[in-house]
Write a structure and sequence with these properties.
There is one protein chain. By secondary structure, this protein is of the alpha+beta class. The protein folds into 2 domains: 225 residues, Thymidylate synthase/dCMP hydroxymethylase domain (Thymidylate Synthase, Chain A, 2-Layer Sandwich), CATH 3.30.572.10; 59 residues, no CATH class. It is 37% helix and 21% strand. Strands 1-2-8-7-6-5 form a 6-stranded mixed sheet. Strands 3-4 form a two-stranded antiparallel sheet. A two-stranded antiparallel sheet has the order 9-10. Helix 10 links the parallel strand 7 and strand 8. Helix 2 crosses helix 10, helix 5 packs across helix 6 and helix 6 packs across helix 7. It is globular and about 60 Å long. The protein starts with 5 loop residues before the first helix and ends in a 14-residue tail after the last strand. The mean pLDDT is 94.
Amino acid sequence: MAILETPYLQLARTILERGHVKGDRTGTGTRSLFGYQMRFDLSKGFPLLTTKKVAFGLIKSELLWFLRGDTNIRYLLQHNNHIWDEWAFKNWVESSAYTGPEMHDFGHRALKDAAFAAEYQKQKQDFCARILADPSFAAKYGELGDVYGAQWRHWKTRKGETIDQIQNVITNIKQNPNSRRLIVTAWNPEDVPASALPPCHTLFQFYVVDGKLSCQLYQRSADVFLGVPFNIASYALLTHLIARQTGLEVGEFVHTLGDAHLYNNHLEQIKKQLGRAPKEAPTLWLNPEKKNVFAFEMEDIKVLNYNPHPGIKAPVSV
């Protein structure tokens, strides 16, 4: 039986035991470690956590959104994916066009004030419905700026041209698999001020040996309870997709973390998760008729034999 989430569970335990108490941008507060690495052997199964249910449908739609080069939440909402809502909603309620109830610091206030939380949810639902129904509104207020999709597929050069980093790395893997330059970066200092959320997973590199493709991600900021389980599965899936197109088997996913943190309002949740016994990892199914990374749709990607413990809810810090 392959238990693949052990490195993640050990990370969480280490932060609880040795994490530094730190403030953070969101005002929530964290326990934090700097510099940590996990390794997952993708040939032994797919590293989707079993100690809590992780919504694989959200992982799929987000990754396909990135690969499309899309930066507008409308595609995500069309696939019932709300994980980027708060950043677009923040832009809306801070705009001069917004005339609804005051929504300042909605993330923290919703946790402390039930009446405000109900109004916040109503306003956010109305916002999402309008994004879906009104393409013009979506174009203006659903746009997140130069987030991952733009940097991966449409990197802007000083000459006014764009670079498709994903296509380039696929071509280079095929033509020069021994290259040490099989890199995609999302961190562009010039674009950071205009991004809704500057890239947390900043750079990834591929490595080919013995007919297997491995991927290492450097993640500058890692929300260990909510974000990291998604990041592990997302980059494992990306490695599988790139391996499919380049005719390789999968090797390892290596996850290197900068600031790895547990938010203070996630501590009870992670303790609950650590009290559960992990189960056998699921397997990934990709439509055998698809090879082109950019041709995959939601129905072409599935996890099989996924039998996790129930999900554990926790608030998102914005």
